[in-house]
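## Example pair
The file below holds two records. Each record gives the amino-acid sequence first, followed by its structure token line.
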Amino acid sequence: MSETGGASARTLILCIDGDNDIGKKAHVETPILGRDSNLEAASALAIADPEEADANAMFGAVKIFDQLTERYPDEIHQIATIAGSSMGGIEADRKIVSELEDILETFKATGVILVTDGYSDETLIPLIQSRVPITSIQHVVVKHSERLEETWAVIFRYLRMLVEDPYYSRVSLGLPGIMLVILGVLLVFGQLQNAGLVLTFVMGIALLVKGFGWEEKLAKVTLRLPPPERQLTLASQSVGLILGIVGSIQGLFNARKFVLPDSPPWWQNFSPWLQQLPTLIGAFMLKAIDLIILGAMVALIGGVASKYMQKDSKMWQNVVGIIVTFWLRFIAIESAKILVEPEKTLTLWSPLVFMSLAGVVTTIIFVFFIYGSDKKLPFQ
């Protein structure tokens, strides 16, 4: 006779259906207590879904119950099935604990034999162990699915590491994030045709730095460099200046196409040039404005990042500047179209008027939001 504290051992063979398939598919309420009830419920679940792993686990629990009853006739055995929730998480855990406590009130178990259908149910062990000792864990799985389930668990573990571990997320999330931002900026400014070149360049630099371990070597280099926020400002302003120069050169070449072939040099006779000046300015703006505005926004974004690193409230001035610069792009383009074709009629509903009003209203609203809000923004 097995004794536990002077009394016969009372063993509970417990089967857990974490996502409540038995309730959803077989329409059987849990907890299920007793051999016959469990056998009927397992049969109903197997008929409802012959591929359901929880049915195999329940049949396995019945088999274990029969074997223990025959092998240890002096002990007291009971079999039960409890279920969680299809929603998972906290709700499922609470339901499992509640049903387990109901079972333990009916059957005062001194130990539990946990019967599971695979790897995932083992996460429930602490919930059970805190209420009754687990004396054994029995796996009842379809032979070809156990390794598959463990493989999926390992895959999800590594995917979570790629997202949550900063060492890996810099590459797995940071690099795609930079590329998506670049694509978005190129799309807004009509430069999507250069996306392949820019993304290839960025990807190549990232692979070189990572492949040759340059990031560790660069981190060890101790040079007398400006503070990081100053480096960021200089870099963004330099890139912005280069973009502005390239845009201006493109604008000048485009304006040159509109120069009349018989026009004398401007220093000899300025009158013809004065008549062509609106057209030349419009042609220049149509070709140059995208890169000039893009350069200005790059410089302003670098300023925002630099001020944020310094915890400087002037960061919000740069944010307002970004909004103004964004709307200036559309206003300048519409103005350039009118300068090139002055015969166009300017109405209240023309794009130029609409863009101007939208830009002014958006800027005013944002300024009021920053400086007029009762709730203090960061660094204010």
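Second record, same layout:
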Amino acid sequence: MARIVSLLPSATEIVCALGAGDHLVGRSHECDFPAEVGHLPILTRPRFVPEATSGEIDRQVRELARQAQAQDALGVYAIEMTLLRELAPTHIVTQTQCEVCAVSLRDVERAVAELTGLETDVIPLAPNSLADIWDDIQRTANALNLRERGRTLIQELQRRIDAVPRTSAAPRVAVVEWADPLMTAGHWTMELIERAGGVPVLGAPRGPSLHFSMEDLADAEPDVIIVAPCGYNLEKTRQDARQLSHREDWQSLPAVKQGRVALIDGNQYVNRPGPRVVETLAIIAEIINPQLSNHEHEGIAWQWFHQ
């Protein structure tokens, strides 16, 4: 019988959507959906202070990453090795995309090497686009001997994506994924904007997240600005938006003057490349499509920023 450890929130959601949630025996400190995983033992912890400001978190994370590279040390997150041994997983689901977002593959492979006497299958996820998300779902399904369930789940998610209304207005949309320093979203988020009928600026579909300046943002002339910092809920996102609103160059942006700044719970939606990517698309559609009357996510997953 499979004993699965998930070290990534989107991976936990994938495992549960495949119907294998009962086989989860451990999770990361950020895995909080669906609610029934809340009782699982937590195997990771950040080595920075999550309550710090965006600028301070960036400084701490950069220093930890530098130390990891220069000294062959632990990365941004630590793994509770004693607990991992006790759980004796047959499968560990992790990611290869970003050492800042979750435990690095290198640290996972080190941990597995210490699990002497166990055969543990590492399932690495690497989402850069919607197609990659479907591949990750199928890869996980195959590793768990749920191949057909994986195909069915992907078809269902693709059907729901195709059903999300698309605006014909083609608004220019910028996404602030981090406030200090300024970073834009990339990867699947830009692709979702395109699918909703928007024109992504400051980033490229399937491309990496990029640093940008406020001058770059002004030159891009977005009609809508979405603020969705990686790992932040709506309250923390609102705090970052307030910090941005104190800047004169932010205040001078037409989208800001027109009240077209939206806040999204990036932790639960934008930054989770799993089954709820469909909800992220629906949220973006609600924000950029003025003709869309059904706003079921507004006030819960996203809201307009009123300064």
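Notes on the second record: DSSP finds twelve helices and 13 strands in the chain. The chain has a mean pLDDT of 90.
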